[in-house]
Amino acid sequence: MMTPARRTITRPLAFEGRTLHLGEPGAVVLMPAEAGAGWTLNGWSRAAWEHDDDAPLATSVVTPSGRVSTVEHLWAALALADIDDVHVTVDGAEVPILEGSAWEFLRALEPSACDSAPVTARSPWQSDWPGVALDVGAAHLTARPRAGSTWPLLEVASSWPGVAGGRLVVDLSEAGTRSRLARARTFGLVSTLPRLRAAGRALGADSTCCVGLTDAGEALPETPLRFDAEPLWHKALDLLGDLAWLPGPRAVCVTALDAGHAANGRLVRALLDRVGAT
Questions:
Q1: What's the chain look like in SS3?
Q2: Are 42 and 64 in contact (CB under 8 A)?
Q3: Max CA separation in the chain (angstroms)
């Protein structure tokens, strides 16, 4: 269970690498932040962020100084490391993909995390609030309070190629589950890569950062799965990264069926409207 204190990091952390969609060099620096600062992005607090619904293959944040895309793995790692206060600076328009998961971020964050101040207010998610259900195209999502834990409980299912027929429940109150979730890599159908690249997407995708799947959903020999159902675990990782827009601790039970980043963003906005948190 999360500690009853706000948490930040003890030292600056820097990450560099190629970006997934732009295929360009990218860099991120994380800096310790004062208690109560929350997460800031390029100097802007959450209150100034907007979700970019025109970026369906990644989570993009629009701030008054510009758009930053593919933030979901970094956001998920900050949530998994239970970081409340941190200053994030992204050099460029996209967060580097690293090895395709949240693992490198989390591996650096966990030993540098520290308590910064006692919690003075209860999270709005740790109260009794009406559940949310919505349909976004073919996606169906629900959310309700989770009693007895400050960690989310996620259930994901998909009929998409590569993860079709799968259903997964992820209880993030378990440390081993958090570690496995962080290691689940980005995936994609190899047959769709020419179309994506023609549209200016996935220009940095290769076997160092993505699991390549055949149309039958089988991993290519050069990108073997780290564990069973890794693509479905990655869907849960992306969901957590999108839910990280919510102020923590996020004591919620979320079900997401055939949902992507755009649908997840709609759920987050519905939750913020319902609970009234900012």
A1: CCCCEEEEECCCEEEEEEECCCCCEEEEEEEECCCCCCEEECCEEHHHCEECCCCCCCCEEEECCEEEECCHHHHHHHHHCCCCCEEEEEECCECECCCCCCHHHHHHHHHHEEEEEECCCCCHHHCCCCCEEEEECCEEEEEEECCCCCCCEEEEEECCCCCCCEEEEEECCCHHHHHHHHCCCEEEEHHHHHHHHHCCCCCCCCCCCEEEECCCCCECCCCCCCCCCHHHHHHHHHHHHHHCCCCCCCCEEEEEECCCHHHHHHHHHHHHHHHCCC
A2: no
A3: 52
| Tokens of residue 73, six digits | 């793995």
Contact indicator for 6, 38 with CB cutoff of 8 Å: no
Within the chain, which residues score under 70 in pLDDT?
1-4, 53-56, 119-124, 126, 161-165, 248-249, 276-278
Q: Which two tokens stand for residue 277?
A: 């948190």
Tell me the residue type at 270: A
pLDDT tens for 100-130 read 999 999 999 999 988 877 766 656 676 788 8
* 121-175 pLDDT tens trace: 656 676 788 899 999 999 999 999 998 888 999 999 988 766 666 899 999 999 9
What angle do the packed helices 103-112 and 175-182 form, to 10 degrees? 140
CA dist., res. 231 & res. 164, Å (int): 10
Closest CA to 239 of 189, 172, 147, 176: 172
Q: Report residue 155 as tokens.
A: 């259930």
Distance, in Å, from the CA atom of 190 to the CA atom of 109, rounded to the nearest integer, reads 32
Q: Do 182 and 106 form a contact (C-beta atoms < 8 A)?
A: yes
